[in-house]
Write a structure and sequence with these properties.
By secondary structure, the chain is α+β, with helices and mostly antiparallel strands. The chain is built from 22 helices and twelve strands. Strands 6-7-12-11 form a four-stranded mixed β-sheet. It has a three-stranded mixed β-sheet with strand order 1-5-4. Strands 8-10-9 form a three-stranded antiparallel β-sheet. The longest helix has 29 residues. The radius of gyration is 30 Å and the shape is elongated. About 6% of the residues have low confidence.
């Protein structure tokens, strides 16, 4: 039995049992029921077979038998509630059903047995030893290294908990919650989104959005046995890098969100606050571009430009973030000087979409990558804007050296004769043209995207910011009101991120208004050259 306890006490092994069940069921709730069936069957069978010599094979043999029984019951439309009885592993009918004629009593017994799984570990262990292993209180106390009074106290508390649980007709289960995650910073090795793709994960995270919850509370609210909640909480607390996950443990021992998570309706209210400035700013920007057309076209590009509309895609993006940064600084000076900003390599912002809602939030992102000593250049940085009008070319962390169309685009700076390419390189050139990276003129390839040796756009955005400086103060006042209303107090240190991520309505609104004005042109198809910028530093 000790070997069996060792296996079932291992988080890694329980995780593999759950994975076995999850792959063979329709959803997480069925998987949890099946996994509970397997654990109960293993404990019961081990009690009858104390001389188990190969515990690992023993457990997996029972697991497969329980799944076979589960499959038969599912086909027949039978009750899938976890049944803690000696014959679950053999596929036989429950012997106890032969002695209990009343269906209500049968259901009540099943609920009592199932409630074992909803006890926290310290109570669960005592109950399993006492009721399933039939150990006496002194033996349990000795095995666990606790006093007999503590054993009795835990048994009493467990009975009270089970009685309350059985008294409920059903475990309340949270309605499905979808979370749209937005990340910013360095995602490699720091991105907790990798561990929050399942519906169960998102539902658990959402329950901790504004309120501290214990594992027991989460188990009851989700209708999920404690072992799975304990494991999920551990995963969401540690994330990918071991310290930045979507949950944090509070001083009270409970859990609360460790990132900004806002309801979709609230997010849209803040986004619309910023978006209503787009019309005015776009009009002023259009007039600015027309007035300074020659200055903009004269920026030191490595591939000379003749049309401000391609450049304006980049200028609008940079202008938006520069404006939001100024608004954030003013709000910080005026309202948040007493708060220490949170410092992380990677930040996550979440938008919760409830059942019946459709996610239609305005969004534009920008991802970039760097390569060193590549194709004759000391350093190459390339970024791409993506969103409603633009399809993403690549994401953060992608390897430029392995992207053949991009490599050919770098080589094409200054001109790349068609005659110099191999047959394979000509096919790559065709793909680069299709992606909007290259253009061909007189049998010579040139970059179609914007290419320069340094960031040449800041002088234009700085000049335009002076023309709209009067908007910064009222926008700072508005975002302060929104932060005060919608940012949870325990996330106050991320007020800068809240300001940044809720301003996407302004960028989207400016792009749409500038398309109407003709300041920029919406691409006929994407991916395209619009929004792609390369900086290539010579050696």
């Amino acid at each position: 039995m000790n070997e069996i306890y060792g296996l079932l006490g291992s988080k890694a092994f329980l995780k593999s049992l759950y994975a076995f069940a999850y792959k063979r069921t329709a959803n997480s709730y069925e998987a949890e029921d099946l996994c509970s069936d397997i654990v109960a069957a293993v404990l019961s069978a081990a009690r009858r077979n104390s001389d188990v010599t190969h515990p690992y094979a023993f457990v997996w043999t029972i697991a497969r038998r329980v799944y076979a029984d589960f499959s038969v019951k599912r086909k027949r439309g039978a009750d899938h509630t976890a049944l803690y009885s000696d014959d679950t592993a053999t596929g036989c009918t429950q012997p106890i059903d032969e002695y209990i004629e009343n269906e209500d009593d049968k259901l009540r017994l099943r609920r009592i047995l199932r409630e074992f799984a909803f006890l926290s570990k310290i109570y669960r262990d005592v109950c399993v030893m006492y009721y399933l292993d039939e150990l006496k209180v002194p033996h349990i106390a000795k095995r666990l290294g606790i006093s007999q009074n503590t054993v009795k106290q835990r048994l009493w508390s467990a009975r009270v908990t089970i009685k309350k649980g059985v008294g409920k007709m059903d475990n309340p289960v949270l309605k499905p919650i979808e979370i749209a995650f937005i990340g910013t910073g360095s995602p490699v090795g720091n991105d907790p989104r990798e561990h929050a793709r399942r519906s169960f994960s998102k539902a658990l995270i959402y329950l901790c959005k504004d309120t501290e919850r214990s594992v027991k509370e989460l188990s009851e609210m989700l209708g999920v046995p404690m072992p799975y909640v304990e494991e999920e909480v551990w995963i969401q607390t540690h994330g990918t890098n071991g310290y930045y996950g979507f949950l944090r443990k509070t001083e009270s021992g409970k859990y609360i969100t460790n990132f900004i998570l806002t309801d979709y309706d609230d997010y849209m209210k803040v986004s619309e606050m910023y978006g209503r400035h787009a019309y005015v700013i776009a009009g002023k920007f259009d007039a600015f571009v027309k007035k300074h057309e020659q200055t903009i076209l004269g920026l030191p590009f490595l591939n000379p430009q003749t049309d401000t509309r391609l450049i304006a895609w980049k200028l609008i993006h940079d202008l938006n973030w520069a404006l939001i940064e100024h608004v954030g600084k003013r709000a910080e000076e005026k309202y948040f000087a007493h708060i220490t900003p949170t410092q992380r390599d990677f930040y996550t912002f979440g938008i919760a979409i409830k059942e019946g809602q459709t996610f239609d939030a305005p969004f534009y992102g920008c991802d970039g990558n760097i390569a060193h000593d590549i194709d004759g250049y000391k350093r190459v940085f390339i970024s791409n804007i993506y969103g409603r009008r633009l399809e993403k070319h690549f994401g953060c962390g992608d390897d430029i050296s392995q992207d053949k169309p991009l490599r050919l685009t770098i080589r094409a700076i200054g001109g790349l004769p068609l005659s110099s390419l191999t047959e394979g390189e000509r096919e790559t050139a065709a793909k680069a043209i299709e992606a909007g990276y290259l253009k061909k003129k007189n049998d010579t390839f040139h970059p179609r995207i914007l290419v320069s040796e340094a960031d040449v756009y800041w002088c234009v955005t700085d000049a335009f910011l002076k023309e709209i400086a009067h908007l910064i103060e009222p926008m700072a006042d508005d975002i302060h009101k929104m932060i005060k209303k919608y940012l949870p107090k325990h996330m106050a240190g991320e007020y800068k991120l809240f300001n940044q991520q809720t301003s996407l309505g302004l960028l989207d609104g400016m792009y749409e208004e500038c398309i109407e004005l003709g300041t920029i042109t919406a691409p006929d198809k994407t991916p395209s050259a619009e929004g792609v910028v390369m900086i290539a530093e010579r050696k």
